[in-house]
Amino acid sequence: MGKTKDVEVVSVVRLVNKDTITANDGKKRESIRDKGVLATTTTCNVFRLLEKCGIRTHFLAQDSPNSFLAKKCEMIPIEVVMRRTVPEGSSFLKRNPAVLPGRIFKHPTVEFFLKDDERGDPIIIIDPATRDWKIYDARKPISEETCFGSIFPLCFVDEAKQMIKTAKQVFSVLEQAFSLLGVTLEDMKIEFGRNQEGSIILADVIDNDSWRISKDGEELSKQRFRDGNSAETVKTVYEIVAELSEQLPGLADKIKTNQ
Fold this sequence. Notes:
4-stranded antiparallel sheet, 259 residues, 2 domains, 5 helices, alpha+beta
């Protein structure tokens, strides 16, 4: 069971999206009517687009308004975060105080975070020489003082490289697709799992909780909830994004991919 969805295991995995929305590592929580339906619409359309663009995912089919079927995976407890821009208040600025708010990266950054609520999802740094995995406080500059210690590697080095490569492909596809709809993709997070054959594939969900996007300068993501907007306003934003997502699968032929 997650913060915003239930997982029901049948012959394959059935992911049921809840109406729950959370922020601040689950400390802020609210229920928004039909949020689960809107999230499912968005994530299914995103997976359809990515599959059409040659990116392997666990998605199989939507089986109800608020649920979809997926290939069963052993989830890797890592959130992979990609950023094109760094807004005011981003944890990236706390880790990298020399970077100014509003920075636009020529190539999106890719970071790994351990899914660990108690320690605030610490950032993972893999030493390329020793292959040692160390975790650091994600809200402070990276140093020996902010290191929580080493952890057992959660995947092989080649698998980590594959996750980074796929993350960049996912960001590129969605950035291009959203651009065609007049939407700017600022950052996003994804997760991976191992399928029954042992291969790493894109898993979990990718919906309006997963990114920061804007259109004509208006924030259209979960950030509205973090900023304290009303439930009605947040629902309207999720409705707009779900409706926009219906166009995503049809844009696959217009996307440049680098497999």
